[in-house]
Amino acid sequence: MSDPKKLFVKTYGCQMNVYDSERMSEALGGVGYVTTDSPDEADMILLNTCHIREKAAEKVYSELGRLKPLKAEKPDLKIGVAGCVAQAEGAEIQRRQPLVDLVVGPQSYHRLPKMAESLAEGAKVLDTEFPEEDKFDHLARRPKAGRGPTAFLTVQEGCDKFCAFCVVPYTRGAEVSRPAGQVLDEARDLVERGVREITLLGQNVNAYHGHEDGLAGLIWALAEIDGLERIRFTTSHPNDMDDALIAAHGECGKLMPYLHLPVQSGSDRILKAMNRKHTAEQYVRLIERIRAARPDLLLSGDFIVGFPGETEADFEDTMALVREVGYGQAYSFKYSTRPGTPAAEKPQIDDGVASDRLQRLQALLSEQQRAAQEAMVGRDVSVLFERAGRMPGQMAGKSEYLQAVHVEGDGIAIGDLRRVRVTASGPNSLSGSVLR
Ligand code: SAH
Ligand code: SF4
Ligand code: F3S
User: Fold this and answer.
1) Res. 1: pLDDT tops 60
2) Looking at residue 100, which CATH number applies to its domain?
3) 204 lines ligand 1 (CB under 6 A)
4) Phi and psi for 198 in degrees, rounded to 5?
5) Ligand 3 centroid to 129 CA: how many Å?
6) Does ligand 2 come within 6 angstroms of the Cβ of 204?
């Protein structure tokens, strides 16, 4: 038998791309590819790309440029672009960078084995359709190989919200939910292979409607699976946080007390211009309700500064909202103009002004994150151990609040779930000792 072909996948962007990269590797595994960590020894290189901000999209072209010498040396090397840039730019990618053999959009990954055949025959392939058939029904079954204790599981794709700044509704298409039965099968299979924590993924995961009781219904059904200890979900939209989901945060022991709930801005005027369809006040009241259900919830969010029309007063409203809500973690971005989105047509904010606001917001958010980390010292948390730590003898895992925790690892195995007393905090991780 000839040696298996080697596949190198590089993933950019959100967790949904991480999940997709796994599924692509599995699909190509069915036609003889094994994954490698080294692009130099690969027979196929796939870049799974992100289009959310200009910088993310441009990275792809610099990466492709860097692959030129490799392709010159190995003419049989196949280079593919998948993900959201593939969907957004399609044939333009091959025009701009002719070394690209394959452009495949997120809805067509189940067709990769067929595409690999065409590539082997020397053809160039472009597939950015939104096919009729369900990708998930046609993707290769997940192999039985063992795996780490945590996994992503995509349950919902696409977005119907059309925030004025965002490309996702265009790159990922309309909202689609996978049927609960299919999700539960995949979850059981993951648990059999050693997974103890599942993060449910969707661009708007709380708009999930593949279960008659929505995302809360799915979470309760997953909680029945023996051996599955922890459930998380991301990313949510404030307008889809229904009563049942809020209640689950208080009542479902396996649902972790961490919630990523982006608000983007604290100014009603900007929220309206962004087409977010809620006010700052409504968001703050919603957070109060969720915290009433789960008082120790650690909240995370996303913010955009410098959206077209944002004044200093609007920005101050965002700062005020952050002070009022208090985030344990957050992501903040300077607005990036995305071609084809409504906000791209509006007069843009001066870049220096936007950078200055981003700095001020990030200083406040880092301060809150530091305080949240510090507040953990002396508390007991539960830690799911995922890997060896950076220092010899250390083990590393995540608390229920998704904070990284390091301990001296004597007698701890990957996949263990243990109580840990937190003894010290750093900006990005906690250290502690395991309680016997
Ligand atoms: N569905 C998720 C967001 C997905 S994109 C949600 O609605 O929360 C992740 C984050 O990227 C967004 O929350 C937003 O903060 C940021 N983002 C999206 N488009 C952007 C743009 N054009 N410029 C800057 N940041 C953007
Ligand atoms: Fe983008 Fe808004 Fe949809 Fe989130 S809800 S993916 S920000 S359009
Ligand atoms: Fe990026 Fe696409 Fe995810 S644009 S953030 S990879 S949905």
Assistant:
1) no
2) 3.40.50.12160
3) yes
4) -120, 130
5) 17
6) yes
Helices (H), 224-311: 243-251, 268-273, 280-293
The 3-state DSSP class for residue 44 equals strand
Provide φ and ψ at 199, rounded to 5°. Answer: -105, 115
On whether both 12 and 114 belong to a single domain, the answer is yes
396 Cβ inside 6 Å of ligand 2: no
Collect all residues with Cβ–Cβ distance below 8 Å to 340 and sequence separation of at least 6: 88, 167, 170
Check if 161 has its Cβ closer than 6 Å to any atom of ligand 2: yes
Answer yes or no: do 123 and 167 share one domain: no
pLDDT at residue 428 greater than cutoff 90: no
CATH number (domain holding residue 243): 3.30.750.210
Question: What pLDDT score was predicted for residue 409?
Answer: 78
State how many domains the chain has: 3
Identify the domain containing residue 227 by its residue range: 146-256
For residue 235, the ligand 2 atom closest to its alpha carbon is 4
Closest residue by Cα to residue 281 from 329, 332, 325: 325
| Nearest ligand to the CA atom of 341 | 1
246 and 176 within one domain: yes
Q: Kindly state whether residues 9 and 123 are assigned to the same domain.
A: yes
Note whether residue 248 is domain-resident.
yes
Task: Provide CB contacts within 8 A for 58, sequence distance 6+.
Answer: none
123 and 152 in a single domain? The answer is no
CA of 302, nearest ligand number: 1
Ligand 2 centroid to Cα of residue 81, in Å, is: 23
Per-residue pLDDT tens for 106-131? 999 999 999 999 999 999 999 998 88
Residue 340 Cα to ligand 2 midpoint, Å, equals: 14
Q: E-assigned strands of 26-129?
A: 33-35, 44-49, 78-82, 102-104, 125-127
Residue nearest to atom 1 of ligand 1 (CA): 203
